[in-house]
Write a structure and sequence with these properties.
Blueprint: E1 6-9, E2 14-17, E3 25-30, H1 41-59, E4 63-68, H2 86-94, H3 98-115, H4 131-143, E5 147-150, E6 153-156, H5 158-164, H6 175-181, E7 197-202, E8 218-220, H7 222-234, E9 238-244, H8 248-263, E10 268-274, E11 277-279, E12 282-283, H9 294-299, H10 311-319, E13 327-329, H11 331-350, H12 365-377, H13 382-400, H14 408-425, H15 435-459, H16 463-475, E14 478-483, E15 486-491
Helix pairs in contact: 2-3, 4-7, 7-8, 10-11, 11-13, 12-13, 15-16
Bound molecules: zinc ion (ZN).
């Protein structure tokens, strides 16, 4: 499978042939969640996109060090370095310790990622665990003359930096435009210019998350942690930096400026950004109610969709779009994905019982395999890969129906390749029937039988029997409802 992997680099705006800094090794940093609330589906999409990338790079034989941070301090409510720390605010509102907030939502995040079958990163560093590194980095930036202290806070001097090294490369903004679009400082601010951003903030007396520093008891700026942690674990120059599209500016632009101010070189070779997820055509937002948590989607306990969707169906749905396209979650789109997912799973399950022939017919296995790799090598194009997987599904069904033939060798090779792409690369799992599931389905079948018998009794006007069944079931908390379409049951 000798062909080059092409990766779309947000920095150049082009697909580039991927070449790692060290042979066979890839360093990848992805901005992780701020753990002040349950992880939302949009974030899940970003992390699932990078899970695909992580899995494919590993499959290509790279030893990948994947670093994804947990932001547990320093992320303020807005990007202008104002407002409360998101975690401290949640702790205040719920009268608990900030670290209780962090613990609760870190657990939720990891649990949700596990349900989506996303592999854990190699290192998952926290901002609060790297205060020392962040203070050291601020000192270096100050030594280079690109940061200044005012009243115990330290700010990055964007205009000063831009005189030496251009600022705005990633987001394509130039400094004049930024100056033009910035709100004027209100006189309350310590900043010299509105474009500047905080590296260290002095804590107000009521601010509970605080650490000592040479400048004040305070806390680090949000952009700083990623530069401190990525360089600590991946070096001052590494292969891939990823995140959601919304982080391009200002977060990633600030990361570039921080690193370049000290190390005088571009910190990242390939910037990769995953696009957003909308719900019923609109941006997801708690404030408008157009919002759903992953678990609400899995359980069906939400007011937006009529039925639950399993984590694997949602993952498959996300994989059916390219990571750089916007994806819209809707019930009809998810239902279509669910059908497709089951068709694929059914075909995989048929593989073991296919009858083999002397020769194969009706399928070009070698070129099909090549097509699967070509799709993934083209900037991780999972929707095209999935379309190829469905070509194989058609073939498997045709063999199963006796319309085509497959020999033993081809069957072994097809099974291996399709499972490789399905399980290892797309990260999908075939639903396994657990013991509990089969207990439940046995119970359901028994109930259906009882209800059938009761319906028959009612037709025959044998109300003694029909009432007996209803009353005995009611005693064990099973409710029968008679509707126009027939009887249904509910287990209380
Ligand atoms: Zn970051």
């Amino acid at each position: 499978m000798e062909q080059a992997l092409a990766v779309y680099n947000s920095l150049s705006g082009k697909k580039e042939s991927f070449k790692s800094l060290l042979p066979n090794h890839v360093g990848m940093y992805v901005c992780g969640p701020t753990v002040y609330s349950n992880v939302h589906l949009g974030n899940c999409r970003t992390f699932i996109s990078f899970d695909l990338i992580f899995r494919y790079l590993q499959h290509l034989g790279y030893k990948v060090r994947y670093v994804r941070n947990i932001t547990d301090a320093g992320h303020l409510e807005n990007d202008a370095d104002e407002g409360e720390d998101r975690i401290a605010k949640k702790a205040r509102l719920e009268s608990i310790e900030p670290m209780e907030v962090v613990q609760r939502y870190t657990v939720d995040f990891r649990d949700t990622m596990k349900q989506f079958n996303a592999l854990p990163p190699s290192i998952e560093p926290t901002a609060t665990g790297h205060i020392v590194e962040q203070i050291e980095l601020i000192k270096k930036i100050m030594d280079e003359g690109y940061a200044y202290e005012v009243n115990g806070s330290v700010y990055f001097d964007v205009l000063r930096f831009n005189k030496d090294i251009p600022y705005g490369k990633l987001s394509g903004r130039n400094i004049e435009e930024l100056i033009h679009n910035s709100r004027a400082l209100d006189g309350q601010s310590d900043k010299k210019n509105p474009q500047d951003f905080a590296l260290w903030k002095k804590a107000e007396p009521q601010h509970i998350m605080r650490w000592p520093s040479p400048w004040s008891d305070g806390f680090p700026g949000w952009h700083l942690e990623c530069t401190a942690m990525s360089t600590k674990y991946l070096g001052t120059q590494f292969d891939i930096h990823g995140g959601g599209m919304d982080l391009k500016f200002p977060h990633h632009e600030c990361e570039i400026a921080q690193a370049e101010s000290v190390y005088k070189k571009s910190p990242v070779n390939y910037w990769i950004h995953a696009n957003m997820l909308t719900l019923n055509g609109k941006k997801m937002a708690k404030s408008t109610g157009n919002n759903m948590l992953p678990n609400e989607m899995f359980s069906g306990e939400n007011s937006i969709f009529n039925k639950p969707f399993s984590p694997m169906v949602v993952r498959f749905f996300m994989m059916q779009a390219h990571y750089r396209s916007i994806v819209d979650l809707s019930e009809s789109a998810l239902e279509a994905s669910e059908k497709g997912f089951h068709r694929l799973v059914d075909a995989l399950q048929k593989l073991d019982s296919l009858e083999v022939s002397e020769n194969s017919s009706g399928f070009e296995l070698e070129s099909w395999t090549q097509n699967c790799y070509t799709a993934m090598n083209d900037d991780f194009n999972s929707p095209v890969l999935i379309a190829h997987l469905f070509d194989a599904v058609k073939y498997i069904n045709a063999v199963s129906n006796g319309l085509h033939k497959i020999n033993a060798e081809d069957l072994a090779s097809l099974s291996k390749t399709i499972r490789l792409f399905f399980n290892e690369i797309l990260g999908l799992q075939t639903p396994e029937k657990s013991e509990k599931d089969s207990d439940i389905s046995q119970l359901e079948e028994t109930l259906k039988l009882l209800i059938n018998l009761r319906d028959k009794a009612r037709v025959n006007k044998d109300f003694e029997t029909s009432d007996l069944i209803r009353d005995r079931l009611q005693k064990i908390q099973i409710q029968i409802n008679d509707t126009a379409e027939g009887s249904t049951f509910k287990i209380n």
